[in-house]
Amino acid sequence: ILNVEQSPQSLHVQEGDSTNFTCSFPSSNFYALHWYRWETAKSPEALFVMTLNGDEKKKGRISATLNTKEGYSYLYIKGSQPEDSATYLCAFAHRDDKIIFGKGTRLHILP
Amino acid sequence: DAGVIQSPRHEVTEMGQEVTLRCKPISGHDYLFWYRQTMMRGLELLIYFNNNVPIDDSGMPEDRFSAKMPNASFSTLKIQPSEPRDSAVYFCASRSTSGGPSSYNEQFFGPGTRLTVL
Prior knowledge:
The structure holds 2 protein chains of 2 kinds.
Chain A: E1 5-7, E2 10-14, E3 19-24, E4 30-38, E5 45-50, E6 56-59, E7 62-67, E8 72-77, E9 86-94, E10 99-101, E11 105-110
Parallel strand pairs in A: 2-11
Antiparallel strand pairs in A: 1-3, 3-8, 4-5, 4-9, 6-7, 7-8, 9-10, 9-11
Chain B: E1 5-7, E2 10-13, E3 19-24, E4 31-38, E5 42-50, E6 53-56, E7 65-71, E8 74-79, E9 88-95, E10 108-109, E11 113-117
Parallel strand pairs in B: 2-11
Antiparallel strand pairs in B: 1-3, 3-8, 4-5, 4-9, 5-6, 7-8, 9-10, 9-11
């Protein structure tokens, strides 16, 4: 059974603070790891896709790293802002084209 | 492009009724996915199509659920008969193969259909 775990499930962060959360996935048959951002009442939108061990991607204040050998990815947000409040989903792409989503980390930014 | 289009956006029905959800993928995308989102289970893949052919329907919960893709621009997810436990948000997403292996490419999600079965 392919399992993608995200932790924590929920996170409250003070505006201006930095934060990070984790996505764990199977280390075998890895093809790609996607991060999506999902705002309430909207649809998930892609943030990053990473394929190589050691990959790092950055978009503004948000960055992600990938460790395929141990099966985890971190998402970092620097200097959190209210607009960062959302659920962050990771999705593991298996070599046989299967995509498995984690349940997400729900981030709340406190003013 | 208008993005992935889903209809209806909200559906309220009574137990036992047939429900049909519709999806129009982004033009040129050759993969189409149906997901169900619930608090308990998160985002679950129900079924996906490649070039209108169902590839993996192992996520379809039971025989009451069926999906079709008669052409490249339209797909339906049908629940017959519906039950209260089917209440969820159903998302359709599409993806392109262009540029390389498809698993690398992002999925574009529709706005979802919120289904309530009373």
